[in-house]
């Protein structure tokens, strides 16, 4: 066995060389990406933090009723947000929401078109599958290191790490939804003279919408699961008090922050989850 370990493949050195080359030669690309993502996060933060918290709570409750048409859900949203304010975690919650919304937006903007392309090109999906597996199985801390070097401390490396971890969900589920469109539906559209673009927008995407929405909710949940890890690279939000509670073994603070994260997760999940009626069940 010694002869095998003596001739170790320098994978780590190759990765180090690549990151060093990117840092020296493509820093302007990462600076541009960082500027765009920071602007996106700042815009969401401005929308959430500029109004009085009670105004945001009221708007969220009205929006909840408009989306779900259930008074009980609107009341639950209002009570959940008021509880977070009462516990003193409103600012951290808005920071976490900005990270989750930004990460989810990036994942869906990139993931849905890739999922559609993968559904239409089986060879492309076969090539993408091991990459998607790698993105979700490799320890998050491994790609936090290059993200930290390339983008510096702050919300952006946390956002990048979150996108890498969460984007396989919309890609896989969009691919599944589009590729499972019944052949008779496609043949009917072709019989009426529909173009490929019309088939996509009027047949395949509407049929795949439940799967796409499932990808959206999964992306939100996966993004929320990254709030603590993102705090390790300087991302603000509920992950910061969670780490402080862990470092000081503060059970009370840990429980308070944990409840806040759970309430945010439930509210976001219920906002975007489709009713079973919407699935045709």
Keywords:
about 280 residues; mainly alpha; MetI-like fold; 15 helices; about 85% helix; disordered C terminus
Topology:
Elements: H1 2-6, H2 11-25, H3 27-49, H4 53-68, H5 71-87, H6 90-120, H7 122-137, H8 140-151, H9 155-166, H10 168-179, H11 183-191, H12 196-224, H13 227-231, H14 239-248, H15 251-272
Helix pairs in contact: 3-6, 4-5, 5-15, 6-7, 6-9, 6-10, 6-12, 8-9, 9-12, 10-12, 11-12, 12-15, 14-15
Structure write-up:
It is a single chain. This protein has 281 residues and is mainly alpha-helical. The chain has one domain: MetI-like (MetI-like fold). Helix content is 83%, strand content 0%. The chain has 15 helices and no strands. α6 crosses α10. 32% of the residues are buried. The C terminus is likely disordered.
So how many helices? 15
Range of helix content: over 70%
Strand content of the residues, in percent?
A: under 5%
Query: Which CATH first-tier class would you pick?
Result: Mainly Alpha
From the 3D structure, determine the CATH topology.
Answer: MetI-like fold
* Morphology call: globular
Structural class: mainly alpha
Average pLDDT, rounded to a whole number, is 87
* Count of strand segments: 0
The CATH superfamily label reads: MetI-like
N-to-C SSE string, H for helix and E for strand: HHHHHHHHHHHHHHH
| Count of the separate structural domains | 1
Distance between the termini: 57 Å
CATH architecture classification name: Orthogonal Bundle
Give a short account of the largest sheet.
none
Low-confidence stretches: 277-281
The Rg value, from CA coordinates, equals 22 Å
């Amino acid at each position: 066995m010694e002869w095998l370990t003596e001739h170790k493949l320098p994978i780590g050195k190759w990765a180090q060389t690549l990151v060093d080359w990117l840092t020296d030669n493509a820093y302007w690309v990462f600076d541009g990406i960082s500027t765009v993502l920071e602007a996106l996060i700042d815009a969401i933060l401005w929308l959430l933090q500029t109004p009085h918290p009670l105004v945001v709570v009221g708007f969220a409750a009205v929006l909840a009723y408009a989306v779900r048409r259930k008074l009980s859900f609107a009341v639950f949203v209002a009570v959940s947000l008021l509880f977070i304010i009462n516990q003193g975690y409103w600012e951290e919650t808005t920071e976490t929401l900005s990270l989750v919304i930004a990460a989810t937006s990036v994942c869906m903007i990139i993931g849905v078109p890739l999922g559609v392309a993968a559904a239409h090109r089986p060879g492309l999906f076969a090539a993408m599958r091991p990459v998607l597996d790698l993105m979700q199985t490799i320890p998050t801390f491994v790609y936090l290191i290059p993200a930290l070097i390339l983008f510096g401390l702050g919300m952006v490396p946390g956002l990048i790490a979150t996108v890498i971890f969460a984007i396989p969900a919309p890609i896989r589920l969009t691919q599944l939804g589009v590729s499972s469109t019944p052949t008779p539906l496609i043949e009917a559209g072709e019989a009426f003279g529909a173009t490929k673009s019309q088939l996509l927008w009027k047949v395949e995407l509407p049929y795949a919408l439940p799967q796409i929405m499932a990808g959206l909710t999964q992306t939100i949940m996966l993004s929320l699961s990254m709030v603590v890890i993102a705090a390790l690279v300087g991302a603000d939000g509920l992950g910061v008090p969670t780490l402080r509670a862990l470092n000081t073994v503060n059970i009370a603070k840990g429980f308070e922050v944990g409840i806040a994260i759970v309430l945010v997760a439930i509210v976001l999940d219920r906002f975007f989850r489709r009713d079973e009626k919407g699935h045709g069940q």
